[in-house]
Q: What sequence folds into this?
């Protein structure tokens, strides 16, 4: 959709490089290949370690140096077990629903959920805060689960728009309601530490579903978040 608009306005067709550098695309699903989980985690770590040591070698680093020797294994372990663990559905948080015994049927806001993700175009960090709100459909989930859902989708190579939508979509599914809102305010290191080198800008993305898609609700929500 976005490309069509852009190519219509200035007749310019975007290259793969421009698409990545301007972070233009964002389907809901993380683009995964069909065979993504044919290899075991152990095999993946072994493979990544070999490939990463090649990158280091090409850069001219001395892999026999005590300080560098363990790096390929450490990076492989970090990719699979930590920063990209959210690619694997087996790591998805299991969410139990409880009945809303308190009959609390106003909005619930969980704000300032810190997350670390990585930009899928440059593989450098995205550091941000997520704010989540929902209105119970009669069911509630533990507050820590909101945090875990954010962390799960953050631990993937990401674009911020998709991260926002994936969190919103998961919340709608587990909470059985359309009344969810997700606001993400994040700093992209690919913008601050390289490229344009803008150290002060942050990017805000939002999803307002159901009852939240309403000017007065949005204002009310922004009040909670900013205070
Ligand atoms: Zn980037």
A:
């Amino acid at each position: 959709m976005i490309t069509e608009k852009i190519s219509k306005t200035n007749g310019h067709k975007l290259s793969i490089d421009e698409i990545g550098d301007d972070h233009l695309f964002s389907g809901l699903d993380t683009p995964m290949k069909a065979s993504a989980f044919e290899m075991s985690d152990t095999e993946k770590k072994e493979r990544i370690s070999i490939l990463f040591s090649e990158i280091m070698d090409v850069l001219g680093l001395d892999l026999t140096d005590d300080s560098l020797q363990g790096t390929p294994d450490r990076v492989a372990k970090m990719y699979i077990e930590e920063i990209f663990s959210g690619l694997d559905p087996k790591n998805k948080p299991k969410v139990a629903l409880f009945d809303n015994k308190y009959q609390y049927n106003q909005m619930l806001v969980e704000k300032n959920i810190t997350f670390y993700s990585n930009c899928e175009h440059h593989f450098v960090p995205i550091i941000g805060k997520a704010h989540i709100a929902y209105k119970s459909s009669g069911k509630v989930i533990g507050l820590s689960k909101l945090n875990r859902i954010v962390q799960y989708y953050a631990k993937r190579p990401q674009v911020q728009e998709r991260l926002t939508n994936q969190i919103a979509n998961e919340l709608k599914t587990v909470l059985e309601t359309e009344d969810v809102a997700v606001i993400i305010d994040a700093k992209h290191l690919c913008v601050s530490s390289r490229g344009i080198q803008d150290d002060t800008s942050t990017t805000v993305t939002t999803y307002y579903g159901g009852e939240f898609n309403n000017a007065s609700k949005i204002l009310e929500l922004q009040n909670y978040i900013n205070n």
